[in-house]
Amino acid sequence: MEKFLGLLRIRVLKGVNLVVRDTRASDPYVVISAGDKKVKTKVVKNNINPEWNDELTLGVADLNHPILLTVYDKDSISRDDRMGDAEIDIKPYVEHLKMGVKGLDNDTTVCRLSPTRENCLAEVSCIIWKDGKLVQDMCLRLRNVERGEIHLQLEWITPAGSKGLHSA
């Protein structure tokens, strides 16, 4: 049986300059998966700069297993078209969670992560102390496509009665 570490709340905020997969626009939605678990946003009709503002929750059992984000164009007649993908690297965020940071001033930046060839970051990503918890803001550059970015925010949720990440 897989060991359950906790829940990752992923706020999928918006897409920027996504590719056109239909005649003039696309009907994008995002699927986020970790292992055999998948969650998805609502479809935003006819928009290459969609605002989802969807809150998705994904169970995390293995920190070494990549979290994959894939954008699709919803089609009613044929199979949905891929509009790019990105990998969400939660390891730096989790390392800062394990440090047990507490009691900082609101909006204090704990860490800044720069885009590299090894990650999908489109710009500097900040891990921030906000409202009594650590969150990470990310702007991911989509791969396997001409262009597009997805803006999201990560927040760890430790279920009641769980030791969470400190036992990981």
TrEMBL record:
Record GO cellular component, one term: nucleus
GO biological process, one term: abscisic acid-activated signaling pathway
Subcellular location, principal: membrane
UniProt-listed Gene3D superfamilies: C2 domain
Residues covered by the C2 domain: 1-104
Pfam families registered for this protein in UniProt: C2 (PF00168)
Xref: InterPro entries: C2_dom, C2_domain_sf, CAR1-11
Key words of the record: Abscisic acid signaling pathway, Calcium, Cell membrane, GTPase activation, Lipid-binding, Membrane, Metal-binding, Nucleus
GO molecular function, one term: metal ion binding
Location(s) in or outside the cell: Cell membrane; Nucleus
Family named by the database record: Belongs to the plant CAR protein family.
Record-given protein name: C2 domain
Species whose genome carries this gene: Dillenia turbinata
